[in-house]
Amino acid sequence: MRQIIAAFIFFTRLPFWRLATIPAAYFARILPYWPLTGWLTSGCSVLVLSVASLLLPYSVALLFAIIARLLITGCLHEDGLADFFDGFGGGASRERILAIMKDSHIGVYGATGLLLYFALFYALLNQLPVELASAALLAGDPFAKGISSMVVNRLPYARSQAEAKSGVVFAKMSVRDYAVCFIFTLLPLAGLPGAQYLLATLAPVTGWYFLTALMKKKIQGYTGDCCGALFLLCEACFYLSILLIYSSSFFITSEG
Question: Which domain holds residue 11?
Fold first, then answer.
């Protein structure tokens, strides 16, 4: 239970720290519960989307849903994505990439990357009907976090623990950790409205493979910023696939 509370403390800005005092050692083993935090963030986003869409145009309701998730997470993952773009976009060597990612200032690569990411994220969900967008959010958030957490067993941490921005270096997952993580990752997929939408899981898995290969080549490991970037980019791949499947199904149905 303490690991679960630690995961919610680390990955959200909600006051879960009031529930218990968590020793620092527990935070190293929270990755199996990262997708579980996605149940909360996606659930709150969908709740806001559903309620707001009753009163406002869908496009505006979607914007409120995105804002709700950002408030819950404190833009933790978006900060990582910006640092990832800055580091890998502006750094020529391993040392330079790591130094740029640790810098708290955002550069042109980070700003441009965030702008394009949010534009894509919004545009993809805005093209879906509210029911499908809700199902996609409930499935995509935990799924992308689950597969992103697997980076710890593929790559080593690229810095020393003393250099970690958060002070936490995630431990490699055991067989039990994998089982727990898979349950929280895969269970929300059952809420998708058709078996054909399960094909949307292929793109984020492929994206994860190539992104982690890039990290291995450039910095010989991963950082906390890389975890945030992995999650958001894999999640975007999931929603892109959902939209492609929906559009193809709609086209086939219309032709029929």
Answer: 2-255
